[in-house]
Amino acid sequence: MKFIILMLLSCLIASCSSVKTSTIHQYSDVPKTTRGEVVSSSEYSAPVFIHNIKKIIYYQYTTEGDTGSVVASSLILLPDKPNSKLVVLAHGTIGVDVACSVDKTFPLFLHKGFINPLLKEGYTIVMPNYRGLGQTNATHFYFNAKESGKDLLDAILAAMKLQKIDIETPVVFLGYSQGGHAALSATEMRKSYFPQLNLVGLVLYAALVNFDEMINDILSKKISSTVQYFLLPYVVSPIVRSHSDIHYKDFFSSSAVPKDSGEDLVCLFDIVKMIPISNKWTLHPSDKALEVAVSYYKEQNLPHVRVDTPLMLIRGSKDAVIIDRWSKDYVTKLCSVGDVVEEVIYNGGHLSMAGVPRAVDWIRKRFNQEPPHNVCNTLSDKNNVQ
Fold first, then answer.
1. What is the distance between the alpha carbons of residues 265 and 277, in angstroms, rounded to a whole number?
2. Mean pLDDT, rounded, of the chain
3. Which of 67, 127, 245, 370 has the CB geometry, 3.0–4.6 Å to 365, for a possible disulfide?
4. Domains contained in the chain, CATH given
5. Which tens digit of pLDDT belongs to each residue from 355-386?
6. What is the structure's pLDDT at 271?
7. Order of strands, edge to edge, in the sheet holding 21-26?
8. Parallel, antiparallel, or unpaired for β 53-64 and 69-79?
């Protein structure tokens, strides 16, 4: 309930409409096999709640699809007192429809707790949409590791070309909620997909990444919060969208089954439309729907390889989306492959920005090349004692 109240208050405080833009540069005739190329760019009027900002630019860029390039979009936020550092802010769940893009007032308001402290530090922020959000030439598949990872990496490459940013510029990924999964995927893919990227750290803030545990708990009906039920149609949407013979009714046994068109899978800034039916969803998947869903999320489970960059895992003690056990198991998994992990637990829920000062301080230390704290050393010591 607290989540819903916060969301509704946010919509009252900040208009949920797009901010007007004016075109300042246009690119054309982009080859279909390119990636990281700018297609168009527009200056974007900064909302009043964004501080320490010189300019925001909205741009479209190419990224790799299954059969050629697709177009995705992103924002680049330029601080009024810039330094030579870049933070990629991978946004949390906004929705799964083309209308659910980060270049709306509400998504920016939702993420301002990250944006303003980063701009105050002088960091340039790249804030990409995931493909299919804001663009009609691709379908958005929720939590698709390969696609969202490419979206982030190509958004960086295009931003560097657009703003003439040196390719050796130090970069930190900050992934919030769904964005944690995207940032983790981009981190894993970077050495083969964007080997020149100078990545110095990764922050997973209230990030949902442990899909093995998530799927098991969903199927065992161990989830209980309104927010988790609200997200269930998002979770199964990639299965319905990629399989013509699987429908939402194959997952839910209720009178409020979402339409296969997805028209009632509203964006978070239209959450009031979803509230009356979200508590009526009863998950009861058919054998085939279950098999495909488990297979899909097994493929999206990360990491497949060692992260191989300092990582901060930060989460709230009262998170209504992420079960505490999911994160604990994930820390153990990261440590087991030799990664360097700092874990921080703040007093707050999924939408709380209480952990942001710690995250920003950690980012500052990564840019300053200070040795990171590693909780894995403590876990190793405990195991040795036992």
1. 11
2. 85
3. 370
4. 2-210+304-375 (3.40.50.1820), 212-298 (no CATH)
5. 999 999 999 999 999 999 999 987 654 443 33
6. 60
7. 21-26, 38-44, 53-64, 69-79, 124-128, 86-90, 170-176, 198-205, 311-316, 341-346
8. antiparallel
CA atoms within 13 A on the CB side of 150: 19
Long-range contacts of the stretch 253-262 (C-beta < 8 A, 24+): 253/282, 253/284, 254/280, 254/281, 254/282, 255/280, 256/280, 256/281, 257/281, 258/233, 262/96, 262/97, 262/237
The span from the CA of 214 to the CA of 182, in Å, is 17
Q: In the structure, what pLDDT confidence band is assigned to residue 253 with cuts at 50, 70 and 90?
A: confident
pLDDT for res 385? 33
**Alpha carbons 365 and 18: distance in angstroms, whole number:** 35
Contact 106, 269 (CB under 8 A): yes
Please, where are the H alpha helices in 200-278?
211-219, 226-242, 275-278
Asked whether residue 155 carries a pLDDT value surpassing 80, the answer given is yes
Mean pLDDT of 298-306: 87
User: Taking the alpha carbons of 367, 368, 374, 377 in that order, is the dihedral positive or negative?
Assistant: positive
Number of helices (H), then strands (E), belonging to the chain: the values are 12, 10
* CA distance linking residue 38 with residue 234, whole number of Å: 30
Give the C-alpha separation, 251 to 368, whole Å.
Answer: 49
pLDDT digit string, tens, across residues 164-219: 999 999 999 999 999 999 999 999 999 999 999 999 999 999 998 778 778 878 77
User: Which residues, 6+ apart, have CB-to-CB distance to 187 below 8 Å?
Assistant: 173, 199, 202, 303, 307, 309
DSSP code of residue 321: S
- H-assigned helices in 83-225: 105-110, 112-120, 145-163, 178-193, 211-219
Helix (H, G, I), strand (E, B), or coil: what is residue 206? coil
169 three-class SS: coil
In sequence order, which residues have a C-beta less than 8 Å from that of residue 172 and are 6 or more positions away? Answer: 85, 86, 87, 88, 199, 200, 201, 202, 203, 363, 366, 367
Q: Which of 71, 83, 61, 55 is nearest to 368 (CA)?
A: 83
